[in-house]
Amino acid sequence: xxxxxxxxxxxxxxxxxxxxxxxxxxxxxxxxxxxxxxxxxxxxxxxxxxxxxxxxxxxxxxxxxxxxxxxxxxxxxxxxxxxxxxxxxxxxxxxxxxxxxxxxxxxxxxxxxxxxxxxxxxxxxxxxxxxxxxxxxxxxxxxxxxxxxxxxxxxxxxxxxxxxxxxxxxxxxxxxxxxxxxxxxxxxxxxxxxxxxxxxxxxxxxxxxxxxxxxxxxxxxxxxxxxxxxxxxxxxxxxxxxxxxxxxxxxxxxxxxxxxxxxxxxxxxxxxxxxxxxxxxxxxxxxxxxxxxxxxxxxxxxxxxxxxxxxxxxxxxxxxxxxxxxxxxxxxxxxxxxxxxxxxxxxxxxxxxxxxxxxxxxxxxxxxxxxxxxxxxxxxxxxxxxxxxxxxxxxxxxxxxxxxxxxxxxxxxxxxxxxxxxxxxxxxxxxxxxxxxxxxxxxxxxxxxxxxxxxxxxxxxxxxxxxxxxxxxxxxxxxxxxxxxxxxxxxxxxxxxxxxxxxxxxxxxxxxxxxxxxxxxxxxxxxxxxxxxxxxxxxxxxxxxxxxxxxxxxxxxxxxxxxxxxxxxxxxxxxxxxxxxxxxxxxxxxxxxxxxxxxxxxxxxxxxxxxxxxxxxxxxxxxxxxxxxxxxxxxxxxxxxxxxxxxxxxxxxxxxxxxxxxxxxxxxxxxxxxxxxxxxxxxxxxxxxxxxxxxxxxxxxxxxxxxxxxxxx
Length: 713
Description:
Elements: H1 24-30, H2 43-46, E1 69-72, E2 79-88, E3 94-102, E4 108-110, E5 116-121, E6 127-132, E7 135-140, E8 146-148, E9 158-160, H3 165-170, E10 177-179, E11 185-192, E12 198-203, E13 210-215, E14 225-232, E15 237-240, E16 248-255, E17 261-268, E18 273-280, E19 286-293, E20 305-306, E21 312-317, E22 324-329, E23 335-337, E24 345-352, E25 357-362, E26 371-376, E27 382-384, E28 391-396, E29 402-409, E30 412-424, E31 427-437, H4 440-446, E32 454-460, E33 466-472, E34 483-488, H5 507-514, E35 518-522, H6 532-536, H7 544-558, E36 563-573, H8 575-585, E37 593-597, H9 608-615, H10 622-626, E38 640-646, H11 655-666, E39 672-676, H12 690-706
Parallel strand pairs: 34-35, 34-36, 36-37, 37-38, 38-39
Antiparallel strand pairs: 1-2, 2-3, 3-4, 5-6, 6-7, 7-8, 9-11, 10-11, 11-14, 12-13, 14-15, 16-17, 17-18, 18-19, 20-21, 21-22, 22-23, 24-25, 25-26, 26-27, 28-29, 29-30, 30-31, 32-33, 33-35
Helix pairs in contact: 1-12
């Protein structure tokens, strides 16, 4: 493998005397470094934007103004769905007042009395499905008839067509229904949450406060019972999909191109056995078409593509060491490995069934890079469509003749080009049609500021591995001086912070570098895009290898002549806050300061799907939970510790902070804390000044507790 170690000798830097310094106002009030808006969409993706909603009034004559969202149908251009007064629920869900808009006469019809979720047109554009009050409805555009597909929905008991909290967060989707290929059927989830324990949060107000309760299964807790139903739209009848019941998950359902065949994804609770069940929409009977087992766990993704012939499917799996692309037949007779590389496929961008080609993005030539490729179905020919040590983010058109390339690297804002895919005698090449954006405005602004250049490193750990890292040195770096170091880290399973794309290094980190801090990011053991074994080594002991790697990296950096080894800090958010809390406890001999924002402090407090995927249950693996919980090591703290949390965090509960503080108090450890009332996991907000206050607090705390004589405020 090509060496990635970079020479640490620093070349003379430009003179920055005439350049500005970044301020918190630039970042959290003025939006100085906001990226250039880019219009780079193909027509089919932009159709909703052409609908004129100016001057709309509802049936009572009330002005509706501009909608929050417009949903159009490719097959019925005469109607659109409009959403108003959108209200966020959890990470991927929101609800809004829903209207059907007649494009020709500008008439609007309110479809739901309450705010609705997940509105969508049927494939022919003649019907609309949506969720209201935990029930699934279908509205017929021609007859104006609204039909209740379900009637038993009830808050904190039964959900139809929408996910419960833990499915939404950990399986990455919220809309829990799907139209069949021609719209004959509607398949939907039914969650019975009766056995799931509630979590309550206080919502603070000017009166007596409110109590918000929702179902949240923590590690080891019972889950919802999940059933999949298939509704026959014309007959108004439904059947239940047949599969093995028990303590299981259904992480996906996907219709095949055959209008009456649904694939139900079945996953055991340990998440190491995945089965795909081809299910008949008329009878509910199923037969297995694929099964995968893993000694650790099977990751769930959306790369599954069921082909037009109704006989084959394409998918990605890391079952042979790296994430690769495979083609299988439903009957199991065809099993083709299409890519055969020692690097991970990051995503499938498109499948050209007519010409039997797959377009995909891979973490190549280095794990932090992304390049675009095309391969044939036989796996015999692979053609790179982009090259170099960059990140290429791709938007591909439907007929596979053009793509937009959003190209950047860690120090260079994106350049967006429209490209043609040219095929001659089975040879595929790319030509640039036009440059859409070169980030001219952002580059002009950046030139006015003293911006440092980040560099990639490979830092050795004590286990014989090398860790992908980046370093940002102070703008006016002087190798004869010693600077404090701030680690920024997430570090969770399959994540990647050391990425070769612009934005990886935030402008807040640039601001700190201007003021004399060295910023370092290290992707520890357990992070992604380096193959299965590197990622899954942390199985059953989250936090152990991760923090050992961060400690090793800090020790290595502490030996550099320009590093003040008495001033090495660590900060992180969520899983990163867990890492920062471990840094100041288990890493107390190396790290002198840590900021933990919204941290998990004990995996017993977190949800079961995520936690058990990597840890199994606390009943099965008590030591794995307890030996790596920072709560149990607060007595080791020597340095400064700041813990920050939102009281309305539905994801990583405020309980994590209160229990950590309890342990700190018990061991008489001095610490600082900040809480933000009613704020969720993101702890943000410009209208109420939350974002500015949060980042100001962290900045000032770092100046005070990590700064030295070579840093300035």
